[in-house]
Write a structure and sequence with these properties.
Strand 1 and strand 2 form a beta hairpin. Strands 1-2-3 form a 3-stranded antiparallel beta sheet, covered by helices on one side. The chain has one domain. Helix content is about 20%, strand content about 35%. It is α+β, with helices and mostly antiparallel strands.
Length: about 70
């Protein structure tokens, strides 16, 4: 994942929070986000969300417990 920052914006309408704020024009190389302005706060949030989506799941699926109920006599 790579975020390409192409321009600093002193004041622009953020794509995520729809607020006018200082930030950058950014585009993620895999198409996660089209080229557009993000404030600094939303750039951090977008980067976190994208990293979470790009990581393989570390959770292993639970298998049903075997033998529960059969062993109680």
């Amino acid at each position: 994942m790579r975020a390409v920052i192409s321009q600093f914006n002193e004041s622009a309408l953020c794509l995520w929070c729809n607020r006018t704020a200082e930030g950058v024009t950014v585009e993620f190389d895999d198409g996660f986000l089209q080229k557009g302005p993000l404030c600094w706060r939303c750039l951090q949030q977008a980067t976190r969300v994208h990293n979470l989506q790009a990581q393989p799941s570390t959770e292993t699926p639970r298998s049903p417990a075997k033998g529960r109920g059969d062993a109680a006599h």
